[in-house]
């Protein structure tokens, strides 16, 4: 009987470990990155533009796949108009005028591509660079925690004052509908402004009925995805080699981020400290109403990856930051996710007191921390013993490992069709972090 039950229990144990690993990070029976994504967009030739989009779009307009469009200057969709875009349509954003597209509150963007015919927004330069153009802004009337309504008017310093209302966002409608973005690529956006940067995609006060899935932002000159307030669900987002943050949430955002990927390069980063995931409730606490909701992010099946081939050297040169940054008064519930190759994996803002009340706001469960220079720290504090004891409790099911990228992910070095799902049965996990900070570089 012993000889029979032992192999059965061994099989069940191995199967259970494999199944648990398979559930971490981005998931899918097939590689859902195939066909609609593009990891070498500079090699694409969309052709010459045949139509121009400029000024204000104040009536329902449809863009056709048979045309190539040039986005010229700051284009606004206003007066409750709907801009519809056929699958496979290419929109070239003008570099000289630093073009951008803004969907005003009440207007809609219906950009519903397909897996074989994605909609592409990209730079019109022959040799494209991060920050060639502005990006896409969608403004809704869902709540934020700002006093009154918010505005993006600072993004448009030359805007006529009579048009300022078109830059407002926020309201009381948590279910507001701003349209659909599905199978959409946004490339080389994130232009620099006088007092900051555009993001690849900025969602401000966007409500829960808006559909946002299968969106790729690549080579952004600033943040890839930035969300202010709103109540929304984001599925299968991809941020690739952004200079800024990959996913940045602020001003009372209530969001579920599912099955999404961020890939960073140590050689592509802005001068300010950028992370894969940044969660905050405010920039300046004087600008928010604390009687309103604080930012609450639920992130599940997320893969955050630093593509360094020399992690120790890149950390010593100051090229690698933390993977996740959590600000004061913000909530983060992250589970079944992978954080691989950062310095450290997670950083809490200075001033967050390590106690049960605060740690219950910031949850990490069923995680896979791989090849990081330390796991979870408070900013400017190298003693993380309390945090290690808390999140290292076996009830959280967190796993710590030291594995090379090619052992961890199925086929991340495939230039045409990379696969960033975890490689099953190739992960050697341990109960303790086996990548000691002294092996790589200084702790935070």
Automatic annotation (TrEMBL):
It comes from the Bacteria. This is T9SS C-terminal target domain-containing protein.
